[in-house]
């Protein structure tokens, strides 16, 4: 019996959606949610990013990127799922796949700030709170 099991990775394609919250916009954060069936259950995976090039906040790049994400949400992106002992432990949204889906190369250089695995939609929860 091994004390430390090796992680197993699986890549899946899932549709992405922009999570729109005033707090994120004020802080210059881009939050993305991917949703789909993982291991027989509907799962919602969310990740928040910042722009590596801070000049993009001043030159309108941030707003441009948000518009591109809004216009293309629902398209599929690659997500790398990380399992340990047959349990989903973490994930990574492939930013190159996201950039390709949106037709915006600037998305390749997003910097990950945080992530979460949920059995509910963070996007829908925030939208319900803003009503």
Q: What share of the residues does DSSP label as strand, in percent?
A: 35-45%
CA radius of gyration is: 15 Å
Return the structural class. alpha+beta
Terminus-to-terminus distance? 52 Å
Weakly predicted, low-confidence segments: none
Residue share in helix: 25-40%
Give the overall shape, derived from the CA principal axes. Answer: globular
| Element pattern in H and E | EHEEHHEEHEH
Question: What's the helix count?
Answer: 5
Mean pLDDT: 91
Instruction: Let me know the number of strands.
Output: 6
Describe the overall structure:
The chain has helices at 22-27, 55-58, 61-72, 95-102, 122-129; strands at residues 8-19, 30-38, 41-51, 76-84, 87-93, 110-118. The chain is an alpha+beta fold and 131 residues long. The chain has a six-stranded antiparallel beta sheet. The termini are far apart. The chain is globular.
Task: Provide a quick synopsis of the model.
The chain is α+β, with helices and mostly antiparallel strands.
Topology (SSEs and partners):
Elements: E1 8-19, H1 22-27, E2 30-38, E3 41-51, H2 55-58, H3 61-72, E4 76-84, E5 87-93, H4 95-102, E6 110-118, H5 122-129
Antiparallel strand pairs: 1-2, 1-4, 2-3, 3-6, 4-5
Task: List its traits.
single chain, 131 residues, 6 strands
